[in-house]
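TICKET: design request
STATUS: open
ATTACHED STRUCTURE:
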């Protein structure tokens, strides 16, 4: 039987971690200057990449980490450092340069991973899959994962309307705001990873 408690618990957990409202300014900043059709495609690609990564780790995540001898804290710290580098680019305006924005598919990195499919989401899914009992439990877990990615796609897809309203000056402001938010997320992720290493 479908377990609504498992579905609701994982969906809320992923919602807090992946933070669809919080990803909006970062998505707008990273995709600014592109055609609307390209931005929509990048929103779809980012969600597909995130779902693919989450699905792979949901099915065999623990085995992958064990095989590579990588701990969860190490994954968190590495993801945090990568996000920090991207945040610094946003804050300093380096992403305004054509080489930075036009030739790089930000839907893959950093949007798809590690922003959406970050260490927190990956670990939550691995634990949820391991704890799920029977077919009903697994169905509830994967339904929550799919539902979360649908919400992410809708959020990014329709956030493009904001760009038409705020114009170029607003985009610069959103870019700097996104850089600040992203740097805070990155530092917090690094701190969480270090704390887990210390407690171990």
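STATUS: resolved
RESOLUTION: sequence designed for all positions
ATTACHED SEQUENCE:
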């Amino acid at each position: 039987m479908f377990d609504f408690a498992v579905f609701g618990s994982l969906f809320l957990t992923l919602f807090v971690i992946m933070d669809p409202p919080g990803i909006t300014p970062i998505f707008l900043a990273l995709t600014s200057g592109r055609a609307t059709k390209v931005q929509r495609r990048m929103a779809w690609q980012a969600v597909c990449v995130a779902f693919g990564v989450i699905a792979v780790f949901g099915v065999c995540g623990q085995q992958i980490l064990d095989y590579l001898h990588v701990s969860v804290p190490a994954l968190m710290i590495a993801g945090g450092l990568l996000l920090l580098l991207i945040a610094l680019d946003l804050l300093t305006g380096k992403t305004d340069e054509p080489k930075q924005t036009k030739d790089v598919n930000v839907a893959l990195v950093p949007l798809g991973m590690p922003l959406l499919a970050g260490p927190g989401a990956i670990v939550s899914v691995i634990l949820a899959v391991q704890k799920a009992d029977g077919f009903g439990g697994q169905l509830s877990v994967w339904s929550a994962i799919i539902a979360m990615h649908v919400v992410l796609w809708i959020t990014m897809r329709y956030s493009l309307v904001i760009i038409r309203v705020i114009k170029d000056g607003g985009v610069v402001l959103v870019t700097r705001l996104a850089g600040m938010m992203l740097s805070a997320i990155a530092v917090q992720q690094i701190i969480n990873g270090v704390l887990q290493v210390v407690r171990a």
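CLOSING REMARK: The chain has eight helices and no strands. The mean pLDDT is 86.
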